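Marked as duplicate of an earlier ticket. Keeping the data here for the record.
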Amino acid sequence: MSHVDQSGFTEKRSFCRICTGVCGTVVTVDQNERIVAVRGDNDDPQTMGFICSKGAGAADAHYSDERILHPLKRMPNGKFERITLEQALTEIAEKLKTILDRDGPEAIAAYRGSGGFFTAICLSLLPNWMQAIGSPKLFSTLTIDQSAKVVAAGRLGYWPAGMQRFQTADVSLLFGSNPLVSIAHLDTRNPLKRLKEAKARGLKLIVIDPRRTETAKFADVFIQPLPGNDALIAGALLRIILDEGWHDVEFCDRYVGDLTELRAALEPFTEQFVEQCADIAPGSLREAAEVFAHTGTRGLAGTGTGPDMSAFSNLTEHLVQTLNVVCGRFIREGEEVSNSGFLVGRGPRQAGVMPAPRPWEHGPKSRIGNYGLIGGEMVTGVLADEILQPGVGQVKFLLNHGGNPAQAIPDQRKMVKALRSLELMVSIEPYMTPSAALSDYILPPKLHYERADLPIYIFETIFFPTPYTRYTAKVVEPPVDSEVCDEWYVLWSLAQRLNRPLTYMGVPLDMQTPPTEDQLLGITAKDAPVPFDEIKRQTLGCFYDGEKQIALPPDAMTSGKFSTMPDDVRDEVAALLKASLDAKQNFSFRMISRRTRHRFNSFGFAAQPGLKRLLPHNFAYMNPADMAALKIADNGWIKVESDNGAITVIVQAEDGVRSGVVSISHGFGGLPDEDDFIEDGASTNLLISTDRDLQSINAMPRMSGIPVNIYAVTAPLRNAVPAKTTTPTHATSKTSSPASAAVG
C-alpha cells in the first residue's frame, strides 16, 4: 500500500529486517524513487510505531558512499576490480568445482551471519544448497550466541504444546538479558510499551545482571552479581524452591523423571555459599525465588547472551530451564496453544514430554573435537581449526553469507589467519567489512527495501503470541547503474553451473530457468493456513484467526519425562563447584559484553554516518569508584588485558556497572594490528581463546565474564597480544585491510 502526498513524495508500508523485532515501517520515497526517510508505522498492530535508530537510518545504508554496488574480484596485487555478476559466478563455480573434485564436499563450508538470517528465502535455501553440494559444514552466528538453549532442550526434553507466554504472565525472571535494547526477550513487538503494559497489569519483574540495564530499571527484584555466577544462582534458586515446596508437586510427580537426583546434585548450592561466590546481598536469592515460584503463578525464567556467552553456559541454561520445569510453566492439556505456527506449518500439539533427543549424538561430526550438529549446523567455535588443520576434510572454500567472521568469531587472530589461508572465500556482503576485505570475490546483495520478503520465520512461534506473518513487496529499485544480486540467485546459479539439482523446502527447482522471487516466497509459505495470495493482500500483516488449537493429551506411546540431571549435567555441576572453590585471583576485573541501541552485532555500522555519530566506537564502561581507585579519568584511555590478548579503549563512568566489572560491546574493530580504535572500535574477540574454555557439546567459547586486568594508559596503544605470545604468520595473498582494499 502506498500514499502520495502533495509534495510528490510517496509513502509505502513495509517492515524492517535488521533484527527479530520486525518493526512495521513507513518508507518515504521521493520522485526519483529513492528512500528519503523511514519511520515506525503507528498503524502497525504488532509494533505500534516503534522503530530504533538502526531502522530509522535505512536511507543511509541504502545510499552510503561505502556501499558496494558491483561484484568485486581480488587481483594478484591485492586490490579489488569490478567485474560482472555472471563472470564472477562462472569463475567461482569453476574454482569451486576444482576444490570439490580434488578434495571432496567436506572441503566446502558456508558461514551465515546476522545479515544472512533476515532474507526469508535463504533461511532454508542456504542449508538446501549445502545439501546439494553434499557438505554438512554450515556454520553461523547461532552457535556463538545462544546455542546453549538448543543444548538445554536436547538434554531436558521437549513440551510440544509450548510454554506459558509473557502476555499472560504475572512474573518474569531474566538472567543477563536486556530486551529493551536487544529486542529479543519478553515481547519483541515494541518492547518498552509492552513491558509497561505488563507492569500495569501486575507483572513482577526479576532481573539478575552485573549491570543495572535499561530493563533492570523496571525490576521489582534486582540482583547484581559478579559475572560468571549465573549457574550457581540458578542452582540456588532451584534448591530454595524445592526445599520450600514452592514447586509444582503434581506436575513434577507426573513429568519429571529424576527429581531425587536433581535435589541431591543441588545440595551444595546453599544460599550462603552462592551469595558469597556471587558477591550479592544476603536474602536476595530467597526473595527472588519466592516472587518467581511462590507469589508468581505464571511466567518464565529466561536468559540472554550474558549467561549464554559466559563460562558454564550450557549448565546455566539447563538449570534456568529446569526452574520452568519444576514450576510447571507449560501449556497444559485443554488450554489454548496461542501460536502453533504460521509459515512453519501448524499441527496438533501435545501437552506432554518428548524425552531428551540429544541430537548432537547422531549424524555428522566435526573433524575438530568430534562435535555434533547443533540446530542442524556445525559449531562455529571450531571453524578456524577446521580451516587451519590439514588432513581429509580440511575446509578450502568458505561462502560467507551476510556475516563478518573476521570480526564476530572469538580468537580473532586465529580466525583471521584461517580466513587468509583459504583457497577461495566468497562474501555476499554490501560493505567492505573486515571479512569482505579478506575475500577473493565480493557479491553485493540487494538491501531489504529493494526486495520482496517475509519475516524471519524460524522463531515465529516464540516472538509472535498469535499466528502471524507478513509479506512486503520491494519498496525501491537498487541504485541506478548498480549490479547488486539476489542472494538466492547466487545459490541457484552456482548449483546450476555445478550441475547440482537444488531442492527448496522439499520442492525441486527448475535448474534451467531461475525462479522468481515471489515463486520462492510462495514455496516458503506453502504450509501456511491461508493462501499466499491472501498473505500478500494483507498490507498490515496476516493474522490467522481460524479454529483455535487446544493442547492435546500426551501420547502414551511417545511421551516420557524431563531429564533434569543426566550424567553430563551432573559432571558439569561438579566442575562448576570445583571451579568456584578453586577460583584464582590473577585478575582483578571481569569483562562483560553488552548490547547497544545503535548496533546489531556488526550490522551496518560503517555505512550509517548517523549511527556512527551516536556511537563512534565501543567505549568501556566502569563503576566510578573503580575508576577513582585506579586513577582513571572519565574519557581516558585504558588497556584491558586477558591471558590471551589486550585491547585499548576509551573508558566512561557508569553508575549501573557493578564494581569489579568492565562492560564493552562486541562486534567492533578492524583486522588485528591494522585497526584504529577511533575509527573502528576494538574487538573484544582479541581477549578470547578458542584453544581452551570451549563448552562441551556446542564448543561455545567464553565470550563474556572474561577475567581481565585494567591499566590506565596515556596514549592509544595498538591492540595486540601480550609480549609472551607470538603473533601468527599470515599468508601473503590476502593481506589488505579494509582501509587498503580499495577498488583498483
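See parent ticket for discussion. Residues 720-733, 735-744 have pLDDT under 50 and may be disordered.
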